[in-house]
Every structure is written in structure tokens, then in C-alpha cells.
Amino acid sequence: MAAAGQVLTVFARTITVVFQHAADKAAEEARFRTLDILHVSALGVQALRVAIPALIVSLFVSADMVSNMLSAIPEFVTRGLQIAGGFIVVVGYAMVLRMMGVKYLMPFFFLGFLAGGYLDLSLLAFGGVGVIMALLYIQLNPQWRKAEPHPQTTTITALDQLDD
């Protein structure tokens, strides 16, 4: 099954090369509508690469067969896959930390991590809180504020009567 999927991947990517060359030509000629159509068409080919095998499997394999195959997997294998899934999360966090590399933003990262563990908010709620915190940070941080010119004060020394 994996070999068939790999062949479909190579086939789909070979077909999308034609779309990419046509998109390059459309971009050079500033035909943006054609460029949009070619972009969506190439994505459609990639979607079919996944949809066709899924449709074939769903037509020939019943839900009972899938349930029986999953229950035939030994407990130690499923437990190992669960542990590996936990490692993937840890590796993902490590990659984010490595890519961030901006030390002054680390408190926000750890605050979000702790809040995620204890507040039981949805991903959408976290996104909203993150956007609000980013906007507040930009507004309050002097680095991001525009320097407003101070009005010039007139010097009184030219008008001072005691200088005579």
C-alpha cells in the first residue's frame, strides 16, 4: 500500500510540474486569473492523490474489517505508538524553541505553555489571546512605538530684558 502511495505521489508531482511551468508563464504575462486557476488545479491534483486511494479503500473495506484489523494490533505496539506520539510533541516544542531564538519572547512562550496545561481553552481561544497579547506588546514596547516629534520651544534669551 505504501509503495502504491509513493507511486501516486511521484505521478501527481510530475503532473503538477506542467501546471507550475504554465503558472510561471502566466505570471510573466501578468495574467493573474489564469495564475489562480493553475494554482488551484495543481492543488486539486495533489488532493486527488490522497482522495482516490481513500475512496478505493472505503469502497472495498468495511468498518468491521478496519475494527478487526485495529483490534488485532498487539497492546505493546499501540502503547509504543502512544509514547512515540508524545515524543513528537516534545520534539515539536524543542524545534519551536530552537527556531524562536528570541530570548525576550520566551516568557510569552512559557506563559502560553503553562496556560495551555491549566486553563483548558480551545485552540481558537488561545489564538485570540495570542493576538491580543501581541498587539498589547507592540503598543507598549518602546521599540515598536513611533517617536513623536516634540514641539520646539522658543528661547526666551533673545527677549530677556536683563541681558541689556
TrEMBL record:
UniProt key word Membrane: yes
Subcellular location as annotated: Cell membrane
Entry membrane topology: Multi-pass membrane protein
Residues that span the membrane, as ranges: 37-61, 76-96, 108-138
A Gene Ontology BP annotation from the UniProt entry: phosphoenolpyruvate-dependent sugar phosphotransferase system
Domain of life assignment: Bacteria
GO cellular component: plasma membrane
Keyword Transport: yes
Keywords for the protein's UniProt record, in alphabetical order: Cell membrane, Membrane, Phosphotransferase system, Sugar transport, Transmembrane, Transmembrane helix, Transport
PROSITE patterns linked to this entry: PTS_EIIC_TYPE_4
Protein name: Sorbose-specific PTS system EIIC component
